[in-house]
Design a protein that fits this description.
It is a single chain. The protein has 358 residues and is α/β, with parallel strands linked by helices. The protein folds into two domains: 71-327, TIM Barrel; 332-358, no CATH class. It contains 14 helices and twelve strands. The strands form two sheets. It has a nine-stranded mixed beta sheet. Strands 10-11-12 form a three-stranded antiparallel beta sheet, with no helix packed on it. The structure holds iron/sulfur cluster.
Length: 358
C-alpha cells in the first residue's frame, strides 16, 4: 500500500483548480499564479491549515505566489552564488557549499514539500534560474577527501523527500567516514508533511550511533504546529534524533510580539528547540517579507527574554557570505572598574556584580 506521505506528494496542491478546494482565491493570488513563471505548491495537509477567506493568513502568504514578488528593489541578483561562496577558487562539486573550514552544506535534492515564497534559495529551488548538478556520489567523494570536515548539513530542496533506501545509503556512507562527527538534516517536512516520519524513515536515519543525526526544521508561525507535528517530533526523538527550529523573520507573518512569543512557546510544547531566527535574506523578489535588521533583536527583547523560559530563546542571526552574524538586543556592560561591572537588562534596569581579578 502506498504510504500517506507519497500520496500527499503525488497530490501536491499546485494548480488554481486544486487550490480552490481549500480557499476562496483572492484576485492577487489568482493573477500571480496565472502570470508569474514560478514554481509553487504545497502538500494537501499544509493547504488544509490555510484560512479559507483571509488572504493575510500566515500560511497562505508563505505558500501562494504574490504579485509583490515582481518587485525587487533590494534583492541581490545571483544571491546564492554570493551567499554560498560559489565563486571562490576552491574547486568543489555543485552539491557542496562552504562557508566554514570544518562544516559544509551538501545539497542532495531540488524539490520540496512546499515552495516557500520567502526561500533564500529561491533562484535554485523555486524560480530554478540557477542550474546546479546534484551528484550524491561526487559529493560523498569530495567529503571523503576533506578530513577537516567534521559536520555535514544535508540540505536541498528537502532531503527527507528522498526514499528511505537513498537516505539510509547517504547516512551510512557519511557515518563510515572517520572524520564525520555529526550529520544535520535541514527539512521542513516535520512541519509541512509530518506523515513522512514513518517507521521506515526512523530505521533509515535514526538509532544509536556515535555519529548522531540532528534535524533542523523551519516553522514560522504557531498555526503551522498541529497534533500531527507533535507526534512526528516525538517519533524522531524516540529514535535518537533531536529537532531544532530555524524560523525566518517574516514581515506581516511573525514580526509582532504576541505571535513571536506564541511561536516559541508552542515550539517548546511540541518538543522542538528554538535554535535560530534568521533575518529574511536579500534573495531576489522577496522584499515584501523583509523587516528592518534590528527587528529580530527587538522581538527577542520584547517577546522572549525575561518573558518566557530560557529554553525558548533562539539566537537571532543574519546569514551572510562570511557566515552567520548574531545580533543581540542591547544587553551590555554599561561600566567596568577594578571593583565591579555594571550590567543592563532588557528593561533598561542596571545591576552590579563584582569584578574578580584574573
Ligand atoms: S522548504 Fe526550504 S528549500 Fe524548500 S522552498 Fe521552503 S525554505 Fe526553500
Amino acid at each position: 500500500m502506498e504510504a500517506e506521505w507519497v500520496k500527499q506528494m503525488k497530490n501536491q496542491v499546485n494548480t488554481l483548480e486544486k487550490l480552490a478546494k481549500y480557499i476562496n482565491i483572492s484576485d492577487d493570488e489568482k493573477k500571480a499564479i496565472e502570470t508569474l513563471k514560478t514554481k509553487w505548491g504545497t502538500t494537501p495537509y499544509f493547504a488544509s491549515l490555510m484560512d479559507k477567506d483571509d488572504p493575510n493568513c500566515p500560511i497562505r502568504k508563505q505558500v501562494i505566489p504574490s504579485m509583490k514578488e515582481q518587485v525587487n528593489k533590494y534583492g541581490m541578483d545571483n544571491y546564492l552564488v554570493w551567499k554560498e561562496n560559489r565563486a571562490t577558487e576552491e574547486i568543489r562539486p555543485d552539491s557542496i557549499a562552504r562557508q566554514y573550514h570544518d562544516r559544509i552544506a551538501f545539497t542532495v535534492v531540488q524539490n520540496c514539500g512546499i515552495y516557500c515564497r520567502h526561500c533564500f534559495r529561491k533562484e535554485l529551488v523555486v524560480d530554478q534560474d540557477l542550474k546546479l548538478k546534484f551528484d550524491v556520489e561526487e559529493g560523498l567523494a569530495w567529503i571523503a577527501e576533506h578530513p577537516e570536515v567534521r559536520d555535514v548539513l544535508i540540505t536541498g530542496g528537502d532531503p527527507l523527500l528522498l526514499s528511505d533506501e537513498k537516505l539510509e545509503y547517504l547516512i551510512t556512507k557519511l557515518r563510515e567516514l572517520p572524520h564525520i562527527e555529526m550529520i544535520r538534516i535541514g527539512t521542513r517536512l516535520p512541519i509541512v508533511l509530518p506523515h513522512r516520519i514513518t517507521e521506515g524513515l526512523k530505521k533509515a536515519i535514526g538509532g544509536f550511533h556515535k555519529v548522531p543525526v540532528w534535524i533542523s526544521t523551519q516553522c514560522n508561525h504557531p498555526k503551522e504546529i498541529t497534533e500531527e507535528t507533535a507526534k512526528a517530533v516525538y517519533e524522531l526523538m524516540n529514535c535518537g534524533i533531536n529537532v531544532g527550529n530555524q524560523a525566518v523573520l517574516l514581515k506581516g507573518i511573525n514580526d509582532d510580539v504576541d505571535t513571536f512569543r506564541e511561536l516559541h512557546q508552542k515550539l517548546l510544547r511540541t518538543r522542538i528547540r528554538p535554535y535560530y531566527v534568521f533575518y529574511c535574506e536579500a534573495a531576489p523578489g522577496i522584499d515584501h517579507f523583509r523587516t528592518s535588521v534590528e527587528k529580530g533583536a527587538e522581538l527577542i527583547r520584547d517577546a522572549l527574554r525575561g518573558h518566557t523560559t530560557g529554553l525558548a530563546q533562539p539566537m537571532y542571526v543574519l546569514a551572510t557570505n562570511i557566515g552567520k552574524i548574531p545580533l543581540m538586543p542591547d544587553y551590555c556592560i554599561v561600566d567596568k572598574n577594578e571593583k565591579e561591572y555594571t550590567l543592563r537588562n532588557h528593561k533598561n534596569d542596571t545591576t552590579k556584580i563584582p569584578n574578580i581579578p584574573e
